[in-house]
Amino acid sequence: MEANAEVEVQKDEFVQWFSTRPKWVQTAATRLAASRKFPTKEEIEQLANLCVAEANGEAGTVYEPVTYGMLGTAAGSASFKLTKLDKVVGVNAIRHNASLDFGNSDLSVVFGMNGTGKSGFARLLKHTCGTRHKSDLLPDVFSSTNTIPSCEVVISTASGNELLQWQADAKGLPRLRSVHVFDTPLCQTSCRL
Hints:
Blueprint: E1 2-4, H1 13-18, H2 23-35, H3 41-55, E2 79-89, E3 98-101, H4 118-129, E4 150-157, E5 160-167
Antiparallel strand pairs: 1-2, 2-3, 2-4, 4-5
């Protein structure tokens, strides 16, 4: 699994363009990028109020600027390869400190019998990468402890391996925001063999 990573803050033309837009528009874009859902009626009213406040030059109004990296990784940054999910804790019935090694190949296929954790690892990967459409990470229903989901992600870069720590964050790891995770449930309607 190869993707682009943000090694240093680079200029992103789209973010530069946004920085020239009205402050209320920047606030709307920032909120949309953070929530990944259409604003509610109340949120639209808040944005309308920000628009009016900016047009009237009201002092003390707080706006949320679009920041570099928020909309994805800037083009032309260094590449990396996702090599391993390690020390997985609190995800479905995946055993404590389990790992999934993708190796150094350009393509990895994860397969196994029912109940071996394939879906749990797919959900975890979506959460660590901060994908837009992801299922909830569910705890182990047979465990008596309430554990916060977490894992270590190992990526391979030109300068060697790098270890990233992740813990139950809907936004995912900033370094992994450019990773595209494709996972489609099999047999969504009916399957016949």
